[in-house]
Amino acid sequence: MTNLLDQLSTWLVDHNLSNLLFIGLLFLTFAEAGLFVGFVLPGETALLLGGALTATGVLPFWPFLLAAVVAAAAGDSLGYGVGHRYGARVTGSRLGRRVGAKQWAAAGDFLKRNGGKSVFLARGQALLRALVPFLAGQTRMPYGVFFRWNLAGAVVWAGGVVVLGHIFARSVSVLERAFGWFGIALLVTLVVVLVVRHRRKQHRARDDGAPSPPAAEGAGL
25 with 47: CB under 8 angstroms? Predict the structure, then answer.
């Protein structure tokens, strides 16, 4: 896997694509909630890749980490603004119908039960990350409340995923030097098992019409 990362890193540098990749990954993070791109490509995919490439030196770690937090917070703020201004028009549009009444209802119930905290808790599930900021704007959550929870969620989620990608890439490199491909295979297997279990949990929750993150009862601050 380190060979793949090294090859990708070398190719990006040779073709002077590092800056374009930097912007592209941040755009995907921004667009997840702001433009509903999260229905197609969850933002953590872009952030994990970016974090891994900071370990190879293609992307600068701290600038990418800080920019990822800003992009995540700004994207959700755009989603809030769209919901505030065009809420009913979007939910009644073709895109809204594709999301499905069950998903809108589940996200709305999640928001109602958790208030402002839902903006933070929604970071743990791709569907909620895309819907909750929009619904927060549509239901007229005070922007000051939304902003505080949105910023906290962006710091924890975006920052955490970038760091996770960085650590994972560094760990793979260490394992390759210490144990060869056997150690890498064990690590990759563990990660795949965890991801599959997480996805199955999300699909079960989606089929039941309920979001997967644990709900914390209470209204927003």
Answer: yes
CA distance 169 to 59: 13
Whether the pTM exceeds 0.90: the reply is: no
The amino acid at residue 57 is G
Question: Among candidates 41, 76, 71, which has minimal Cα distance to 150?
Answer: 76
Cβ 37 vs Cβ 31: under 8 Å: yes
| Single-letter code of the amino acid located at 156 | V
Q: What token pair was written down for 172?
A: 């793979």
Residues 152-168 pLDDT 10s: 999 999 999 999 999 98
Number of Cα atoms under 13 Å in the Cβ half of residue 101:
1
What six digits make up the tokens of 87? 């809420």
Sole residue written with tokens 């499905």: 100
* Helix, strand, coil % in the chain, rounded to nearest 5: 85, 0, 15
